[in-house]
Amino acid sequence: MRHLLRSPAGIAGTLLVTLMVILAIVGPPIWGAEAERIDSTAILQGVSAAHPLGTDNLGRDILARVLVAGRLSLALALLATLIGAGAGVVLGALPSVLPRRAARLVTGTVNALVAFPGLLLAMFTAVIAGLGARGAVLGIGAAVAPGFARLTQTLAASVAGADYVSAARMLGVSRWRVMSRHVLPNIAEPLILNLTQALGGALLGLAGMSFLGLGVQPPSFDWGRLLFDGFSRIYATPAVALGPAAAVALAGIGFNLLGDVLARAAARGSAPEAKATGRAVPDTGGIGEPDPDAVLEVRDLTVTFPGGVTPVRGLSLTVAPGEIVGLVGESGSGKSLTASAIGGLVPYPGEVSAGRLRLCGADLGELPETERRRLLGTSLAMVFQDPMASLNPALRVGGQLAEVAIVHQGASRTEAGNRAVDRLEHVRVPEPGRRARQHPHELSGGMRQRAVIAMGLMGEPRLIIADEPTTALDVTVQREILRLLRQVTDETGAATLFISHDIAVVGELCHRVVVMYAGRVVEELPVEELVSGAAHPYTRALVASLPDMETDRSLPLASIPGRQPSPAEVGGGCAFAARCELATARCAELPPLISYGTAHRVACWEA
Amino acid sequence: MAQTPRPRRAGGSFALRRVVRFAVSLAVLLVASFAMIHLIPGDPVRASLGPAAPVELVAARRAALGLDQPIPDQLLSYVRDVLGGEFGTSFISGEPVRDVIAARLPNTLGLALLATVVALLVAVPLGMWAAIRTENGRNRGTEAAFTTATGAAVAVPEFLYSIALVAVFAIGFGWFPPAGKGGPESFVLPILALAIAPTAMIARISRVETLRELGTDHIRLARAKRLPAARLYVRHVLPNTLTATLTVGGLLLTGLIAGSVLVEYVFAWPGLGLRIVESITQKDYPVAQGVILVYGAIVLAVNLLVDLLLGALDPTSALKET
Amino acid sequence: MIIKNLTVRFGAFTAVDDVTLEIPPGSIVGLVGESGSGKSTLARAVSGLVPYTGAVEGGDPRRIQMVFQDPSTSLDPRMTVGASVAEGLRLPRTARGPEVERLLSLVSLPAELAGRYPRELSGGQRQRVAIARALGARPELLIADEITSALDVSVQGSVLNLVRSLRAEFGLSMLFISHNLAVVRYVSDVVAVMHEGRLVETGPTEEVVGAPKEGYTRSLLEAVPRLGRG
């Protein structure tokens, strides 16, 4: 309930609804008598001190009548909502337990009814049930039901498709039990929260019906009926329509705002709050002189999110031209965020700080904005994990490639288009001319990933950042993409930063491997030493736990007990200490990344 | 890996299935509107003429309506009549319902269409602007203002907007006529009254869709390419948000047609809506029956058109649906 | 258990095409293939979740259980671990507690986890719970569909070790499905290779991996990334 009071919409909604409920309870006892008092001396008056909203044709005070009418308005709306929601939930749940044909019939009916505007359904019902409150309530109930049926159906279908329902079915759990034990409990919350919104809709619908003279009839009165009376006098005394109109509007707004917040809360579920812990400890020791030959030089890179969550902690990295560096780590190690930080793509509210961030010899922090854009736009190529998502589904492949040249290199459309076809051919996309005119969904996964790489080759890339580029691909396609990356690196002399969770892929492709754990580099070593020369216990365990085609099948696989701490949990010492066999008291202190033989550095006290 | 391969379907058969579904819904609607009269408790003719009407008159009227025939025969002749454009005659005025519809339908449709166009033109840019400003929780003030304002605007029904607009701009300032259909200025207030809530609704959808789109990998990649903002948003983001926005826009059009009933009532707009209210209060059942049938058919037709249009625009989304 | 001439069609598309495969008692048959090869559809068909033509013989079809790829979606978030594991037990209420405890200990989980909710567990622990739930039904065949794909490497090993120990200690028969040939090789006695809905090669693990007969199997083997090959 706390989240209700966190947004202005939530506060306003809660306040208005509370007010309406109080009014419905205390209104009739307090102002009931005055609302009914006939005063023949004060008929059809406008605004006055005695009657702030005027009087009606029997001289009754309109303000009092508005305050009293709240109860009937709310009660009828509640009744209509319950009728509608009850019928809707039954209709929506039926298809899950009925036999196939009957289920399709119910689903079809609901789908047809949902398309009809509620007011139309309400009028249809009102014609049958006759004028008056009963007809209006039944009508609005009929209008609410299809929406609820559809919601129930959608929610139930998503739960019914879940693996845990499949698992229950395999265990021989009956349909009814699946419905009551798995489906209903998992959809109850969103359904209940949506009641508030439906209640607001019913209230407005009933007000509309009464306003048209189809709902509540005299001598009873709800807000809609008062509005009906007031509207007939709007030319003479506009103010008399104001009271009931404001009441309906406020009630509608209140229920809708509250319903909105509740519905969103239901959709979001309960996300765990990040816990704040100590700040990152930057690498001690100076950052030294810039390396003039490096394509990419990163010193002391830190990415922080509000609340002290620091997924990348003082990371340093150098990549030379023509070099393929593998950045390897498990999920949550901060490797992808490192890539985003280098590309300047860390999402708000993440904050990036670095002692040094140089690309192609230029310091990204000091470059003017326009030049920085050009440098990043042409010298840096990025390849992401899911080639399905990396290309814009609405645009042709060729056009997406060409625009880099148009925007940053001032090429004409034709030039750019020709170059796009040329680049596609270069990455061995068959029939590049035809493919360029196609949309992404017409290409296979491997071909799309080639197109993304070709896009990076439109400029003159000095650095290619490939973030899990083969994780979504099959092994045979993965192999082709790895070959392509190596070929591109060889030809262009560009450097590649290859990010992966798969140490075997990194071992196959890269020259040098950088191992990350909990936001820090724990080891940096030439690929040849990965299998037998790794020094950090984490790297060693990672290699040992990976089955390959030579693993001895008679021995159990190694595995690392425990889990990696989340970015919010990382403390001051060695983050791996809790899972480490070699850990000693010294590991409470952060081990620096120090040289360990040639081109090999490790951050471990016990290595 | 776990995905089950989906059989491919041609676009043509998708359209065909939609048309078949439309035809079935239309048939159901026809039966429902026929049944409406028969579901009225007691004798509709007696209810309409009142308890004082002479028995002979009631009997004559029943015979004229064919209510003394067996139900299946009545249904058959009803369907035959409707398909021939014959909707019966009004109990009250005696004019053919067909003429009522022909005279008033264009006024209702015109109002609803104009309001839809206005809503889409305002809402899509507004939603995109809000999304760009509030991406990743940036500018929380703007976000709160936008969600609260649109949330409130959605919650106020058309008839309240109508009354407020009449009170302020017609009666208060006297800028626009308070009622009736006349020159272009008489359209302004009814269109506004109809368009405000859908505008807020579509703006919210447009914002959510834009936010979703901004989070995708291909937009990350487009950003990595350092495209100028205008190109990024108009060429890369907008097309991918339109499908959902237009779907909702299409559905809102049907809602607008219903909402126009109340707006027509306030502005005394000579459309179908005004007439249906009168017919229900006066128990003029043939008119109510005919007008509800026409409303229903319009709603079904609009849904069909939206589906076909989206199917043509975005073949992948059409295939996704069942 | 024998899968005989099993075919699954979705409309005009044939996802699984006339597959015949024997799973000898007490052995692990590894099924390897790329996405779209039909291996997951085959698993769902054998589990009775997808209609098929053909037959599954040599056992009680109700005693086939499946463990899914992603343990975060295969456990009901609103049920405790204990309730999930107890769901398939056909036992009087009083006997369920001890049985749940026994099942959890089989997958090396402490009994006190029974009162926790899935969100409080790590990925590896959740996958063990899913396995324990399947074991509760005393399956004649356990189908494991990509059960380590959603896990980090450092916990993958412990799940694979569990799979092997279940076979060694209880003689559990298993159809182990994965796209990862190295993982399949490590746990399986027999390897079956699937491609475009058909079985292209089946044989003892050492033969298929060591001396593949089919070109497709060879190309799969060549594509397996190897540490330090570069």
Automatic annotation (TrEMBL), chain A:
Origin: domain of life: Bacteria
Residues covered by the ABC transmembrane type-1 domain: 70-259
Transmembrane segments: 12-31, 74-98, 110-131, 191-214, 234-258
Membrane topology: Multi-pass membrane protein; Peripheral membrane protein
InterPro entries: AAA+_ATPase, ABC_Ni/Peptide_Import, ABC_transporter-like_ATP-bd, ABC_transporter-like_CS, MetI-like, MetI-like_sf, Oligopep_ABC_C, P-loop_NTPase
ABC transporter domain ranges (all copies): 296-543
Swiss-Prot/TrEMBL keywords: ATP-binding, Cell membrane, Membrane, Nucleotide-binding, Transmembrane, Transmembrane helix, Transport
Pfam family for this entry, one: BPD_transp_1
Subcellular location: Cell membrane; Membrane
PANTHER family assigned to the protein according to its UniProt record, in alphabetical order: DIPEPTIDE TRANSPORT ATP-BINDING PROTEIN DPPD, OLIGOPEPTIDE TRANSPORT ATP-BINDING PROTEIN APPD
Protein family: Belongs to the ABC transporter superfamily. Belongs to the binding-protein-dependent transport system permease family.
Protein name per UniProt: Dipeptide/oligopeptide/nickel ABC transporter permease/ATP-binding protein
